[in-house]
Amino acid sequence: MAIWSRRQISSSSNFGLPGPPGLGFGGSSGSSSPTYFQRQTSLPANTIIRFVPQQTAWIVERMGKFNRILDPGLAILMPVIDRIAYVQSLKESAIEIPSQSAITADNVTLELDGVLYTRVFDAYKASYGVEDAEYAIGQLAQTTMRSEIGQLTLDHVLKERANLNSNITQAINEAAQEWGVVCLRYEIRDIHAPEGVVAAMHRQVTAERSKRAEILESEGQRQSAINIAEGRKQSVILASEALKAEQINTASGEAEAILLKATATARGIDAVAESIQKGASDAQSAISLSVAEKYVEAFGKLAKEGTAVVVPGNVGDMGGMIASAMAVYGKVSEGQKKVLQTRTIEAGSSTTENSGTTGSADARDAVLESFEKTARSRK
């Protein structure tokens, strides 16, 4: 923020023919005119005709009293009675805030410096509202910074630099409104803490990171153990469910097989019964022969499977054995015989009884012949 006051006016005055610098309309030829790109060190002289640079405000006093503010462009001044008292730059400017000490809420002394960005929005207030606006704003920024840092701890100062900058800017704007200057932003450049505090902060960071590493490692081990246990649980559950399904399938298959066998047996019994019913006495003889053959075959298996054989006492009496086998069959089919006898009595046919007796005798002869063949083959 460039501000020039009438205290910086040089003692030499020029009353020659007015004209812009460098055009030869007036003024001493030996005096050097400053350019608009350089910070001027003295106020411009009244040469009647002046050109005001862009983004610059010139304060004109007439006979020591404020008269007007010259806008950028051509300006005509009254000789002798008009004087350019102040020159205000309307551009944004940066003010360096020197390093200063500040004590935090936890009694830590910090060294801070910053940069303040300001701009003049009212040239009249900036000229007559304060003696030196740049110096006043710099001092205000320093005191405000100390006040704001005194309310925060060291950790909050390091974490909340953005909020701290915003609070300092707001406090400066509240006081600088009467000076015609607005604070656009404030930036803290460097924060220097004592060496002991810095070393303690480094140790704290190291300890914090070690703590985080141990916590993460323990969490990883815990999660790994949970995952392993969960996997074992799921495997046991799946194995038990598989075994259950297998047992259910096996039982279902066995039940179905038993049911099929029972159905087949029932059908076979029905077929045998139907055959017996149709064959009458001839069927009874065939059944007697089949039972006798199985009886003899069972004794033959006893001799093959073991060294000790349990046989009836009348082995030599082959007729007795056949008679025993027929007696077994007779007991098994006693009910069927009663049914046949009932039918025979109702029919009253004696011929059927004789043929049944003949068939039984033929069955006995066939069984005896089969047994003798078996005995001869063993010899």
From TrEMBL:
It comes from the Eukaryota. One of its GO terms (biological process) is mitochondrion organization. Residues 348-360 have a biased composition (Low complexity). InterPro entries: Band7/mec-2_domain (IPR050710), Band_7 (IPR001107), Band_7/SPFH_dom_sf (IPR036013), STML2-like_C (IPR032435), Stomatin_HflK_fam (IPR001972). The keyword Mitochondrion applies. Residues 47-205 form the Band domain. One of its GO terms (cellular component) is mitochondrion. PANTHER family: STOMATIN-LIKE PROTEIN 2, MITOCHONDRIAL. This is Band 7 domain-containing protein.
